[in-house]
From TrEMBL, chain A:
<dbReference type="GO" id="GO:1902495">
    <property type="term" value="C:transmembrane transporter complex"/>
</dbReference>
<feature type="domain" description="ABC transporter">
    <location>
        <begin position="11"/>
        <end position="230"/>
    </location>
</feature>
<dbReference type="InterPro" id="IPR017871">
    <property type="entry name" value="ABC_transporter-like_CS"/>
</dbReference>
<protein>
    <submittedName>
        <fullName>ATP-binding cassette domain-containing protein</fullName>
    </submittedName>
</protein>
<comment type="similarity">
    <text>Belongs to the ABC transporter superfamily. Macrolide exporter (TC 3.A.1.122) family.</text>
</comment>
<dbReference type="InterPro" id="IPR003439">
    <property type="entry name" value="ABC_transporter-like_ATP-bd"/>
</dbReference>
<keyword id="KW-0067">ATP-binding</keyword>
<dbReference type="InterPro" id="IPR017911">
    <property type="entry name" value="MacB-like_ATP-bd"/>
</dbReference>
<keyword id="KW-0547">Nucleotide-binding</keyword>
<keyword id="KW-0813">Transport</keyword>
<dbReference type="Pfam" id="PF00005">
    <property type="entry name" value="ABC_tran"/>
</dbReference>
<dbReference type="GO" id="GO:0005524">
    <property type="term" value="F:ATP binding"/>
</dbReference>
<dbReference type="InterPro" id="IPR003593">
    <property type="entry name" value="AAA+_ATPase"/>
</dbReference>
<dbReference type="GO" id="GO:0016887">
    <property type="term" value="F:ATP hydrolysis activity"/>
</dbReference>
<dbReference type="GO" id="GO:0022857">
    <property type="term" value="F:transmembrane transporter activity"/>
</dbReference>
<dbReference type="InterPro" id="IPR027417">
    <property type="entry name" value="P-loop_NTPase"/>
</dbReference>
C-alpha cells in the first residue's frame, strides 16, 4: 500500500528535523517539515537567507542525514540506507543545479555534460550531451572550458548537464541568484522549458518571488517550518 | 558503470586541460633523474671497477699451486668469456759467468685482458703499448736485467733447456705484483714455449693463473660456479680480494654513487609528494560532484587511483626514456676520462626507474586519494565542507613504507639506508615542529611590523598547513643535497689525502746496521725527509699456540704462501702513524721488555691467529717465542713502511736486522740515489712511482665521476624547488588578487613575496644544515670510514643559499600573479 502511494510521489518528507551541534551550542535549522511532491510537479521553496533552504534540499536529495523524521526518494526511505546506498539510488535519476555552478574547471562544456552519462555507463554519451547543449543554445561552445564561458553560459551548461540523463527529479538551488536579471530570465526560461518537455519533478530553492511564480506550487520556509502560500 | 574506462577518460581530459601538468612534470623529471643517475652510476661504477681490474689484468683471476683443471677453461669457453693463462715461477738464468734470479712469467695470447702492457723496442726508444705477447722463441724482460746479465736486446739467453732471443724491454705490466719485496726481475715468455724449458718439474714452485673478463653478472656466476666446485688449492680473486689498498677507495666510490642515486630519489619523492597533494586538493569538487551524481565512495577512490596510476605509468615511461637520453649525453661528456671503454648500459635502470616512479606516486598520494573518497557530497551546497584531514599516521606510514622500500632497494646497503631513513624521519619531525612554532611566533610579530614585512609574515602564519608543507619539503630536499655535498667533499679529501703528492715513491732496503747513520745523514743532506729507518728481520712462522705451521694446514693459496714464506718482522716502541689497534693494546714504555707481538689483522685472519696466541718464529737459526698482544690494521695504500708482524724491542732488539726506509724523491734529486747506491752497494733501491700512478689514476677517475653525479642531483633539486613553490600558488593567487583590489601597491606585494619565500628558504637551509651534519656524522663513521668535522660555515652558507634560491625562485614564480589583472586571476580560481 505504501509502495503505490510513494510511486505516485517521487519525493516525500515527514516530520523532518535537522539541527547541528556546534561549539557555540545547538542550532535548530529545520523544526518539522512535511512535504509531498507529485510526479511532474514543479515546487518552489522560498525563504530568507539562512532559513535552511539549502539544508532541506540536501536532505531531500540524500546528501545529508536528518536528525529525525523521514525522507523517501522514489519510495525508498533514505534513513535505511548508508551514504553509498543513497548514491546508488540517485544514480541516473537525480539531477542538480547549483547556485555556484559546479562545473569542473578541467573539463570542457561537452565533457561536463557527458560526466553523469558516462558515470551511468550510458552508450552514446557524447551524442546525448551534444543534443543537450544544443537544446541549451550552446552548440558553438562545446569545447570551451568553464573559465572561457560567461556566468549565464556556465549555468546553461549546468542545466544541460542536469537534464541530459533525463532525470526523474531535479534539485535546483538558486540557479539564477548569481546572474543579472536579464541572464537570469534566459536561464529560467530554459529551465522551465526543459522541465516541461521531460516532465521532470523540479524542486527549486530560491528567494526570487518572480522565479517561484513560474512553479506549480510555492512553499515558504520560516523558522524551520514550511508554510503554504504567502 | 565501468570505473576503469571512466577514469581513463578523465585522465585524458586532465592531461589536455593541463590539470596534471605539474605532477606529471615533477614525475617525469624525477624519474628521468633517477634513471639517468641510475644508468650513469651503474656504468661509471662498472667503468671504475674495470679500470681497477687492470691491476689484475682481468676481472676475475683464478690462482692455484697446481695446474688448473681443464673444466675451468671449458666453462669459460662455454660462456664465451675471453680468457688467458699465465704461469709464474722463480728461476735462475745462467749467462756466461753470471747467474741471476728471475721471476719468470709465461703468458698466453690475449694477455692482459684488462689494461695494457707497455714495452720498448730499443734501450733508448719510446715505450708503446704491446699489442701482442712475446712470440715463440722470444723473451721480454725488465730493463734492470740487461746490466745484471750483461746483455743487450737481440742477444740470446737460455732459460732452462731452451734458448730465447731477448726481444723487448717491459716498462709496464698491469698486474705486476704489489709486493714490494719481490726483488727478482721479470722475464716474460710465451706459454707455448714453457714446456721445452723443462722447468715445470713436480718440485718447481709454479703458480698457475687463469684470467677471465666479462660482464659482472657473468663473473659472479662463474665465481659462484668455480667456488662450488671446491677444488683444493684454488683461489678465485677479484680486484677487491687481490688489492686491498684499492678496495676501500672502490667501495667508498660505489657507496657514494648509490647515495647520489638515493638522493635523486628522495628529491623526486618530495617533489611528487608536494605536487600530488596539490593535484588531489583540487579534486575535492569533482569528488563531491561525482558522488552527488550517484557514485559510491569506493568507485570514487577507484576512479582516482586508476587515473593516477595511468598518469604514473605514462610519466614514468617518458621519464625513463628521457633518462636514457641524458645519460648517453653524460657518458659522452665524461667517457674519455676512463682508459677503458665504458660498459654498455643495462636495462635494469629502465625497470627500476619505472618502479620508482609508480612507487613514489602511490606512496605519497594514496592517502590523499583515499581521503578524496571521504569528501561529503554535501560539499556541492557548502563549499567549506571537505573530507576530514588525512590521518598523519596513515600518511607517514605510506610515505615511510615506500621510502624505505626504495632506499633499501636502491642503496643495497641496509646500514646506510637505515641511517638515512632514521635521519630523515627525525628531520621530518623537527621540521614539522619548527613550522608549528614558526606560525605561532610570526602571528604576534606581524602586528609589530608594517608594509611588506607585514604581508609576508601574515601570509606565512595565515596558512599553517601550506607553510609547514613547504618548509618540510624544502628542508628535506636541502638536507639530502647538503648531505651528499658533505660526503662528497670528505670523500674527495680523503682520496686526495690517501696519496699526497709527497707520499713515498722510493724504498731503500737491505741497509746494514752500521750504515744506518751514514744513510740517514746523506738523505738529510740531500734535503730528503724519511719517516725513519726501520729494522727488518727475516723470520719464518714455525708454530701457532704450539701447533706447527705447514702449508697443508691451509686451503687458500695465499695462506699457503704466507705459511711457507719468510716474514719481514720489525720491532718498535710506537706503532706507525697509519696503524690502528683493533683489539688488545699497544705496549707502554714499561712493557718494552715483554715477549709480545703485534699482528696485522688481515694476516691474523688468513692464518688463523687469535689475540693472545703464542707465536714461534725461526730467526737466523734460533727460535723466538712471544704472545700476540694486539691486532692492528694497516693502511697499505699509504706506501709507508709497514710490517705484518712487529715485536717488542725486548723480544727482537738483539736479533740481526737490516734496515728499511721509504721517502719521497723528487725527479730532480734522482742523482742522490745514484750516489747512495754507489756508496753503499749492498743497498737495494725500489722505485714504486709506477705503482702509485696506477692507484692515483683510479682515484682521480673516481673523483671525477663523483663530481659529475653530484652536479646531476643538483638538477633534480630544481624540480623540488619548483614543486615547493607551486604548493602555495593558488593561495597566493587568491591573496594577491584580494590585496590588489584593496589597493596594496605592486611593489609592496613583490617585496613581501620575496621576504616570505626568503624566510622559508633560509629557515629550511639552516635546519637542513643541522640535519645534514648529524646524518653525515653517522654515515661517516659507520659507512664511509671517513673523518668527520663540524663545519659551521656550511650552516651559514646553507642559510644564505636557501634564502636566495627559494626567495628568488618564489618571487619569479609569483611575478605573473602581480602582472595579471586581479579579475582574471579570480576567474581562474
Ligand atoms: N554544518 C553546519 N554547521 C553550523 N551551521 C550550519 C551548518 N549547516 C547549516 N548551518 C546553518 O543553518 C542555517 C541554514 O543554512 P542554509 O545554507 O540551509 O541556508 P539557506 O537558506 O540556504 O541560505 P542562503 O539563502 O543564504 O543560501 C544557516 O544559519 C547556517 O549557518
Ligand atoms: Mg543556500
Amino acid at each position: 500500500m505504501l509502495q503505490t502511494s510513494s510511486n505516485q510521489h517521487p519525493v516525500t518528507a515527514s516530520g523532518l528535523v535537522k539541527f547541528v551541534e556546534t561549539s557555540a551550542g545547538r542550532i535548530d535549522i529545520l523544526q518539522r517539515i512535511d512535504l509531498t511532491v507529485s510526479p511532474g510537479e514543479a515546487v518552489a521553496i522560498l525563504g530568507a537567507s539562512g532559513s535552511g533552504k539549502s539544508t532541506l534540499l540536501g536532505l531531500l536529495a540524500g546528501l545529508d542525514e536528518a536528525s529525525s523524521g523521514e525522507v523517501r526518494l522514489f519510495g525508498t526511505s533514505l534513513g535505511d540506507l548508508d551514504e553509498d546506498g543513497r548514491a546508488a539510488l540517485r544514480a541516473g535519476k537525480v539531477g542538480f543545479v547549483f547556485q555556484s555552478f559546479q562545473l569542473l574547471s578541467g573539463m570542457t562544456a561537452l565533457e561536463n555534460v557527458m560526466l553523469p552519462l558516462e558515470l551511468a555507463g550510458e552508450r552514446g554519451a557524447e551524442a546525448a550531451a551534444k543534443a543537450a547543449l544544443t537544446a541549451a543554445g550552446l552548440s558553438q561552445r562545446l569545447h570551451h572550458y568553464p573559465s572561457q564561458l560567461s556566468g549565464g553560459e556556465q549555468q546553461r551548461v549546468a542545466l544541460a548537464r542536469a537534464f541530459a540523463p533525463d532525470p526523474q527529479v531535479l534539485f535546483a538551488d538558486e540557479p539564477t541568484a548569481n546572474l543579472d536579471a536579464h541572464t537570469g530570465e534566459t536561464v529560467a526560461d530554459l529551465l522551465f522549458s526543459l522541465q516541461e518537455q521531460s516532465d521532470t519533478v523540479l524542486i527549486l530553492v530560491t528567494h526570487d518571488e518572480m522565479l517561484a511564480r513560474r512553479c506549480d506550487r510555492r512553499l515558504y520556509l520560516r523558522d524551520g517550518v514550511l508554510e503554504n502560500g504567502a | 558503470m565501468n570505473a576503469f574506462q571512466f577514469a581513463l577518460r578523465l585522465l585524458r581530459r586532465d592531461w589536455r586541460a593541463g590539470e596534471l601538468r605539474l605532477l606529471a612534470s615533477a614525475l617525469v623529471i624525477a624519474v628521468a633523474s633517477v634513471t639517468s643517475v641510475g644508468f650513469f652510476t651503474d656504468r661509471i661504477e662498472r667503468a671504475m671497477a674495470r679500470q681497477a681490474s687492470e691491476v689484475l689484468a682481468a676481472d676475475l683471476r683464478i690462482e692455484s699451486n697446481r695446474p688448473l683443471p681443464e673444466i675451468l677453461v671449458a666453462e669459460a669457453e662455454r660462456l664465451k668469456l675471453p680468457y688467458a693463462r699465465t704461469l709464474s715461477f722463480p728461476s735462475v738464468i745462467l749467462h756466461r759467468d753470471t747467474t741471476q734470479l728471475v721471476q719468470v712469467k709465461a703468458v698466453s695470447q690475449g694477455y692482459p685482458l684488462r689494461g695494457q702492457m707497455r714495452v720498448r723496442d730499443s734501450v733508448d726508444g719510446e715505450d708503446r703499448e704491446a699489442v701482442t705477447v712475446p712470440a715463440s722463441g722470444e723473451v721480454w724482460l725488465e730493463e734492470r736485467l740487461l746490466p745484471l746479465l750483461n746483455i743487450t736486446l737481440g742477444d740470446s739467453i737460455k732459460l732452462g733447456k731452451r734458448s730465447f732471443k731477448v726481444a723487448r724491454i717491459i716498462t709496464y705490466e698491469p698486474d705486476r705484483s704489489a709486493n714490494l719485496f719481490r726483488l727478482a726481475p721479470r722475464l716474460m715468455v710465451p706459454t707455448g714455449d714453457i714446456g721445452e724449458t723443462g722447468l715445470l718439474g713436480p718440485a718447481s714452485r709454479v703458480r698457475h693463473y687463469l684470467l677471465l673478463a666479462g660482464p659482472p653478472s657473468l663473473m659472479d656466476d662463474y665465481r659462484r660456479w668455480a667456488e662450488a666446485l671446491d677444488i683444493g688449492g684454488v683461489e678465485v680473486e677479484d680486484i677487491r680480494s687481490a688489492r686491498p689498498e684499492l678496495r676501500s677507495a672502490l667501495d667508498q666510490g660505489g657507496r657514494f654513487l648509490r647515495l647520489a642515486a638515493a638522493t635523486a630519489i628522495l628529491l623526486c619523492m618530495v617533489a611528487v609528494a608536494l605536487s600530488s597533494r596539490r593535484f588531489v586538493e583540487r579534486q575535492s569538487d569533482s569528488s563531491a560532484l561525482i558522488r552527488c551524481l550517484g557514485a559510491s565512495r569506493r568507485e570514487v577512490v577507484q576512479i582516482f587511483i586508476v587515473r593516477l596510476l595511468g598518469l604514473g605509468l605514462i610519466a614514468s615511461l617518458i621519464g625513463v626514456l628521457a633518462g636514457l637520453g641524458v645519460q648517453t649525453l653524460l657518458i659522452r661528456l665524461v667517457g674519455h676520462w676512463f682508459s677503458s671503454q665504458i660498459p654498455a648500459p643495462t636495462a635494469w635502470p629502465l625497470v627500476s626507474g619505472m618502479i620508482t616512479g609508480i612507487l613514489v606516486l602511490i606512496g605519497f598520494s594514496l592517502p590523499s586519494i583515499i581521503r578524496l573518497g571521504a569528501v561529503p557530497p554535501l560539499r556541492v551546497f557548502r563549499r567549506h565542507l571537505d573530507a576530514p584531514p588525512i590521518s598523519y599516521l596513515l600518511f607517514l606510514a605510506a610515505a615511510l613504507l615506500s621510502l624505505s622500500i626504495l632506499l633499501i632497494w636502491q642503496i643495497g646497503d641496509d646500514k646506510m639506508a637505515l641511517r638515512l631513513i632514521g635521519g630523515l624521519l627525525a628531520g621530518l619531525a623537527i621540521l614539522l615542529l619548527i613550522s608549528r612554532m614558526l606560525v605561532y611566533l610570526l602571528a604576534p610579530l606581524r602586528n609589530l611590523t608594517a608594509g611588506s614585512w607585514r604581508y609576508g609574515l601574515a601570509s606565512l602564519s595565515r596558512n599553517p598547513a601550506t607553510t609547514s608543507i613547504q618548509l618540510t619539503g624544502f628542508g628535506l630536499g636541502f638536507t639530502v643535497l647538503l648531505l651528499l655535498a658533505i660526503v662528497r667533499v670528505d670523500l674527495l679529501a680523503s682520496w686526495q689525502g690517501a696519496l699526497p703528492d709527497d707520499s713515498p715513491n722510493q724504498f731503500l732496503i737491505n741497509i746494514q746496521p752500521q750504515e744506518v747513520d751514514a744513510v740517514d745523514a746523506l738523505l738529510a743532506q740531500g734535503g730528503i725527509k724519511t719517516n725513519g729507518l726501520f729494522p727488518m728481520i727475516r723470520g719464518r712462522l714455525v708454530s701457532i699456540d704450539g701447533n706447527p705451521v705447514s702449508r697443508d694446514n691451509y686451503e687458500n693459496p695465499r695462506a699457503q704462501r704466507l705459511a711457507t714464506r719468510d716474514f719481514n718482522i720489525s720491532h718498535a716502541t710506537q706503532p706507525q702513524s697509519d696503524n690502528k689497534i683493533v683489539s688488545g693494546n699497544w705496549w707502554t714504555e714499561t712493557q718494552l721488555h715483554e715477549a709480545w707481538f703485534s699482528v696485522e689483522q688481515g694476516l691474523a685472519e688468513t692464518l688463523g691467529i687469535p689475540l693472545g696466541a703464542e707465536l714461534e718464529f725461526e730467526i737466523a737459526g734460533s727460535r723466538v717465542k712471544g704472545r700476540v698482544e694486539n691486532l692492528r690494521t694497516v693502511e697499505w695504500d699509504s706506501f709507508n713502511v709497514n710490517f705484518f708482524v712487529i715485536g717488542t724491542p725486548g723480544l727482537l732488539g738483539a736479533r740481526p736486522a737490516t734496515y728499511i726506509t721509504s721517502f719521497y724523491l723528487p725527479k730532480e734529486k734522482r742523482r742522490l740515489l745514484h750516489t747512495l747506491v754507489q756508496r753503499f752497494p749492498s743497498i737495494t733501491a725500489l722505485d714504486v712511482t709506477a705503482l702509485m700512478t696506477q692507484v692515483r689514476t683510479i682515484m682521480d677517475r673516481g673523483a671525477l665521476a663523483v663530481e659529475s653525479v653530484f652536479l646531476f642531483t643538483l638538477a633534480a633539486g630544481l624540480v623540488l624547488l619548483y614543486a615547493g613553490i607551486q604548493a602555495s600558488h593558488e593561495l597566493k593567487a587568491q591573496e594577491t588578487a584580494v590585496l590588489r583590489t584593496l589597493g596594496v601597491k605592486r611593489s609592496v606585494l613583490l617585496l613581501s613575496t620575496l621576504l616570505e619565500f626568503a624566510l622559508l628558504g633560509g629557515l629550511a637551509g639552516l635546519v637542513s644544515a643541522a640535519l645534514a651534519s648529524a646524518i653525515s656524522y653517522s654515515l661517516a663513521h659507520a659507512v664511509f670510514n671517513l673523518p668527520w668535522q663540524l663545519d659551521l660555515s656550511m650552516w651559514f652558507s646553507a642559510l644564505l643559499f636557501g634564502a636566495l634560491c627559494v626567495g628568488i625562485a618564489g618571487t619569479l614564480a609569483s611575478r605573473t600573479l602581480l602582472n595579471t589583472p586581479p579579475l582574471v586571476t579570480m576567474r581562474k580560481i
